[in-house]
Design a protein that fits this description.
CATH architecture of the largest domain in chain B: 3-Layer(aba) Sandwich
CATH superfamily of the largest domain in chain B: Periplasmic binding protein-like II
Number of helices of chain A: 14
CATH topology of the largest domain in chain B: D-Maltodextrin-Binding Protein, domain 2
CATH topology of the largest domain in chain A: BirA Bifunctional Protein, domain 2
Number of domains of chain B: 2
Number of strands of chain B: 11
Number of helices of chain B: 8
CATH class of the largest domain in chain B: Alpha Beta
Number of strands of chain A: 13
Order of helices and strands of chain B: EHEEHEHEEEHEHEHEEHH
CATH superfamily of the largest domain in chain A: Bira Bifunctional Protein, Domain 2
Radius of gyration of chain B: 19 Å
CATH architecture of the largest domain in chain A: 2-Layer Sandwich
CATH class of the largest domain in chain A: Alpha Beta
Shape of chain B: elongated
Largest interface: A-B, 21 and 23 residues
Helix content of chain A: 40-55%
Oligomer: heterodimer
Largest sheet of chain A: 8 strands, mixed
Order of helices and strands of chain A: HEEHHEEHEEHEHHHHHHHEEEEHEHE
């Protein structure tokens, strides 16, 4: 038997029925984005290695590196936020702000995630560029919620946190807060507790940290910060922002103070979308006010991206049935092919698919 | 615990940690009814808890993928497999040590004495590699799936890296431990998404 040549590890083919499902996800989200006034943007898959290192160390660590014919270092894009930040700084200086962009495109990563082999994934998302923290963040969250609703994904939840919350803790508590943050980003609550126990924190501060990971919902989280007399003042701005978010989206968003961010360029809110159908987040996002400046244009921005494959998987696990694609009407070519083509054209004009019977 | 709450799936390891896990769950009021001893899935309907019985190495796999919400696994395996799961609580049972052991009459009395071309047999290739790197050694790791104690006896390896609970197995095979790499005990782990969505319920298990 002839041996089949296979795709490289972590890549896949999409057969027509599968593409149709993918299209459903894509079209549903694009519809939402366009209703909100977002416009499509495309950037190259092949990028300069420097573009990537400029943006994020974490991303450069998992990106595919390539060497060009003249020894130039290239990479395959590992996210879309980075290339969009670059093109904004390069080509859109002086244009009227804000920009509302959406994108659908493949990203390439070694070890895209631990539980599956994929190295090539579709990301779909938006970037809202040129608007300061405030209403723009709420718009971004609103669009994310509407996107998941539009797909028909049930029981979705957005976990939200803010970099200022942690930055204030770092300032107030010093080194121990950074150690605790690292323990949380490793999801190691045993280490988290042992750091608290070994530390010289006061009894009240220890209780504050222990309570931080216990808060079950937004209300408890906000109440928890307010409990601490000294932090309450420092965190006034974040608290009122959290309250605003809670007033608008209490059904679908939860403030999670223990949420750490996987991306190293966030400078405001950051969030992830989860569903009980999948053991990992569907997507994530946040504010990144310094990133575009790294490419030469000082503008704030906020955005999110979702993994198209995971959205589809969650929909299927939830039991969604997709329509089979309709078969075209068939016309036998006969002796007079011209006449047959005319008949087919008539069908096409009525927007009905028709083709030759072969 | 309240009724009418969402189902919670727990991955329970066979073998060394099995009994301890049952006792721990029982102390939380979770008791499984099993129709036959060959069942791999069993229920505590009162608490709406589903238990699945899996090999120790598979516990973190089920939890990482979200097929089980929580599970009990040794810290040795967490170090070996490095799964993306939340580590919730040290349950302080199933204690054992990961050690370097050699034949009693071996001329190597510490790991630094092992020659550059030394062979070490182990089930824990990642932990073994991490250890020899840390020590600046350059040994060859031979992966075995069981009865690691045989390797030095048959001359397959100069040393082994394996788990020791009582030390009886080593003794019976004329081996001695020369160094401890890590201490291990049973850890309660959770899928990160499950932990967020069923936080209250899972935290109850941690605090009790």
């Amino acid at each position: 038997m002839k041996k089949f040549l296979r795709n490289p590890k972590g890549s896949r083919d999409w057969l027509p029925d599968e593409v149709a499902k993918q299209e459903f996800v894509r079209k549903s989200l694009v519809k939402v984005f366009e209703l909100w006034g977002y416009q499509p943007i495309q950037t190259p898959i092949l990028i300069n290695w420097d573009t990537l290192t400029q943006s994020s160390k974490k991303l450069s660590d998992i990106a595919f590196k390539l060497i060009g014919q003249h020894g130039d270092l290239l990479a395959l894009r590992a996210d879309l936020t980075t290339p969009i930040a670059r093109v904004t700084a390069e080509r859109l200086k002086g244009e009227k702000l804000p920009f509302r962009f959406y994108y659908v495109g493949k990203v390439f990563r070694y070890h895209a995630r631990k539980t599956t082999n994929e190295r090539e994934l579709y990301q779909i998302g938006i970037e809202l560029i040129g608007a300061k923290e405030g209403a723009s963040d709420l718009e971004c969250l609103k669009i994310l919620i509407e996107s998941l609703e539009k797909l028909g994904l049930k029981k979705c939840l957005l976990s939200v946190n803010h970099t200022s919350f942690w930055n204030e803790l770092f300032k107030y508590f010093g080194v121990v807060a950074s150690e605790l943050y690292r323990a949380l980003s490793k999801k190691d609550l045993i280490l988290f507790k042992s750091i608290i126990n070994k530390s010289k924190l006061s009894k009240a501060d220890k209780a504050f940290w222990n309570g931080l990971i216990k808060a079950n919902n937004t209300k408890e989280s906000i109440a928890h910060i307010k409990q601490h007399p000294k932090l309450k003042k420092r965190l006034g701005k974040v608290i009122s922002f959290f309250e605003k978010i809670n007033n608008l989206f209490s059904q679908s968003i939860q403030i999670d103070l223990s949420l750490t961010s996987d991306v190293d360029y966030y400078t405001g809110i950051y969030f992830e979308a989860i569903t009980p159908y999948l053991g990992r987040a569907l997507g994530s996002g946040g504010r990144y006010d310094q990133l575009i400046n790294k490419f030469g244009l000082d503008v704030p921005a906020v955005g999110f991206s979702l993994c198209l494959e995971d959205l589809l998987l969650a929909l299927e696990l939830q039991g969604k049935k997709f329509d089979k694609s309709k078969l075209p009407e068939l016309f036998s070519p006969g002796k007079d092919v011209k006449k047959t083509f005319l008949a087919i054209s008539t069908s096409h004009k009525k927007n009905k698919s028709a083709t030759l019977k072969l | 615990m309240k009724k009418n709450q969402e189902e919670l799936t727990i991955a329970i390891p066979k073998g060394f940690l099995h009994e301890g896990t049952y006792k721990y769950l029982s102390s939380l009021g979770i008791n499984f009814e099993s129709e036959s001893s060959r069942d791999l899935v069993f229920y505590d309907r009162k608490n709406n808890v589903k238990g699945i019985l899996v090999r120790p190495t598979d516990v973190s796999v089920y939890v990482e993928h979200g097929s089980a919400d929580i599970g009990v696994v040794g810290s040795d395996l967490l170090g070996e497999l490095v799964p993306d799961v939340a580590k919730l609580k040290d349950l302080h049972f199933g204690k054992c040590k990961l050690v370097v052991a050699v034949k009693k009459n071996s001329k190597y009395k510490k790991s630094e004495a092992l020659p550059a071309n030394a062979k070490i047999a182990t089930k824990f290739t990642k932990l073994a590699n991490d250890y020899i790197h840390k020590k600046g050694l350059s040994a060859e790791i031979i992966k075995l799936y069981g009865s690691v104690e045989l390797a030095p006896i048959l001359g397959l390896s100069d040393a082994i890296i394996d788990l020791v609970a009582t030390g009886k197995t080593l003794k019976a095979n004329n081996l001695i431990a020369i160094e401890t790499i890590m201490e291990s005990s049973a850890i309660l782990i959770a899928n990160p998404v499950s932990y967020k969505l069923k936080k209250h319920r899972i935290n109850q298990m941690v605090s009790e």
